[in-house]
Specification:
Protein name: Alanine:cation symporter family protein
Family: Belongs to the alanine or glycine:cation symporter (AGCS) (TC 2.A.25) family.
Radius of gyration: 21 Å
Order of helices and strands: HEEHHHHHHEEHHHHHHHHHHHHHH
Number of domains: 1
Number of helices: 21
InterPro entries: Na/Ala_symport
Structural class: mainly alpha
Membrane topology: Multi-pass membrane protein
Transmembrane segments: 26-44, 164-184, 196-215, 227-245, 257-278, 315-336, 356-384, 405-422, 428-445
Largest sheet: 2 strands, antiparallel
Number of strands: 4
CATH topology: Amino acid/polyamine transporter I
Strand content: under 5%
């Protein structure tokens, strides 16, 4: 436990502390020191891709919805899988945590991190496409950071079968996703107990049983996510729009509060501007996953005409996650009178806000939508696990099935009890994944930039050659 806490503090603790006016301080963690400069670097290298290529992101998304013969999943299917994980726990629990700890200003810094993160997401998804390989078990393609890290450190004629850094990434990912499995089921059982007074054992058994039916089948995951993700995102979005329109008169005050607290007009005097910035940054990084190496595990599975196209799709995924869905969660809470939410945190804060806006229906709605968000996240992380299990243990059904069973056990245990260690396990896992991924991402970035230049040179919207 001491070693674990030490690793946690190195990754997420204040590695550097910068004093600020008013007695406040800005603590910079290792992950922030890595991801924020990397996001700026990739944004400059791609010539501000999130802004100038946004129309092309939309066009590529529309293009990839057309049904054609493919060896693997489509680019949009890969986007749906990664969105299932991004638009999940981070968008509800993560945003609530950010606002609880950092106030309304944390929302602004989540937006900033998303704009930077979309460039990082482009680079890692494009690399996943460039270095993908055939999947003999599930069909189609597979890949991700473990595979492009391997190509960086292991030469083609080398006798080495594994790269140490790639192995460490794969292990970190599998540990992280087991930890997240417990967090998912605990959040679901808690919300169902609050909304419907259902004992955790019943909601957990149903959750695990439904999950087992899907994940233990060969290729059911993507088909189920195709149905769940658009429905849950649309329902949540339209309910939020209804709440915003209903409270339109309060919007100027809400945005004024976000920007005022973001730049510390009140917080500098109170000595809390550092908490505002860092909570927004940390939760933004955790929510959109850009740089962590998770989404490339799905991006590599896409059968698409050019690697850069998948990069653009995954960059759009960061926009969808943070600028749309996270903003929806933030508005629900910030349009609620402060006196009603004062002292509340976590799901109690979100459910109280929904009850204020929609009455008892709001509490029920958020419990159901949390179930969908969390369930889709669980399906998505098991899709992420496939190529990493294969990299570590080879192409066999035994190792694939054993990891799925382990994840289902974690899902069951988490629904019955909350362990802080397990919550921190997810943070440590994603933190280590990010460090190992970024070690390879920066030297390999030139490959993704070349792919982007090739895509633009050969005519966007045309069938370009594969890398």
């Amino acid at each position: 436990m001491d070693i674990f806490r030490a690793v946690y503090n190195i990754l997420w603790g204040d590695l550097i502390t910068i004093p600020l006016p008013g007695g406040s301080s800005l603590g910079l963690s290792l992950l922030v020191l890595i991801l924020v400069p990397a996001g700026i670097y990739f944004t400059i290298r791609t010539r501000f891709l999130p802004f100038r290529m946004f129309p092309e992101m939309i066009r590529v998304t529309v293009e990839n919805t057309a049904k054609t013969e493919r060896e693997g999943i489509s680019g949009v299917h890969a986007l749906i899988v990664s969105t299932a994980c991004r638009v999940g726990m981070g968008n509800l629990v993560g945003v609530v945590a950010a606002i609880s700890a950092g106030g309304a200003g944390a929302v602004f810094w989540m937006w900033v991190i998303a704009l930077l993160g979309s460039s990082t997401a482009f680079v890692e998804a494009t690399l996943a496409q460039i270095y993908k390989e055939k999947d003999p078990l599930y069909g189609g393609y597979r890949g991700g950071p473990a595979y492009y890290i391997h190509h960086l450190f292991v030469k083609k004629d080398s006798r080495r079968k594994k790269s140490l850094l790639a192995v460490l990434f794969a292990i970190s990912g599998l540990i992280c996703w087991c930890g997240i499995s417990q967090v998912i089921s605990n959040s679901i059982s808690s919300s169902f107990e609050n909304a419907f007074h259902i004992p955790p054992i019943y909601s957990t058994v149903v959750l695990v049983a439904v999950a087992a039916v899907i994940v233990l089948r060969k290729n059911a995951t993507v088909r189920v996510l195709d149905i769940i993700v658009p429905i849950m995102a649309a329902c949540y979005f339209f309910i939020t729009i209804f709440i915003i329109v209903k409270n339109a008169g309060q919007l100027p005050a809400v945005f004024e509060r976000i920007f005022a607290e973001a730049f510390g007009i009140r917080q500098v005097a109170a000595g809390g501007i550092g908490a505002v910035i860092m909570n927004g940054a940390k939760r933004g990084l955790f929510s959109n996953e850009a740089g962590s190496g998770s989404a490339p595990c799905a991006a590599a599975a896409a059968d698409i005409s050019h690697p850069a196209k998948e990069g653009l799709l995954q960059a759009l995924g960061v926009f969808i996650d943070t600028l749309v869905v996270c903003s929806c969660s933030a508005m629900i809470m910030l349009l609620t009178p402060m006196e009603m939410t004062q002292g509340l945190e976590g799901m109690d804060l979100l459910q109280t806000a929904m009850q204020y806006h929609l009455g008892e229906f709001g509490v029920i709605f958020i419990a159901v939508i949390l179930w969908l968000f969390s369930f889709s996240t669980f399906l998505g992380i098991l899709f992420y696990a496939r190529p990493n299990v294969a990299y570590l243990f080879g192409d066999n059904w035994i190792s694939q099935t054993l990891y799925k069973v382990l994840a289902l056990v974690m899902l069951f245990v988490g629904g019955l009890a909350a362990y802080q260690f397990v919550w921190d396990l997810g943070d440590v896992g994603v933190g280590l994944m990010t460090v190992f991924n970024m070690i390879a991402l920066i030297p390999l970035a030139s490959k993704a930039i070349e792919s982007l230049k090739d895509y633009e040179k050969n005519g966007m919207g045309k069938q370009s050659r594969k890398q």
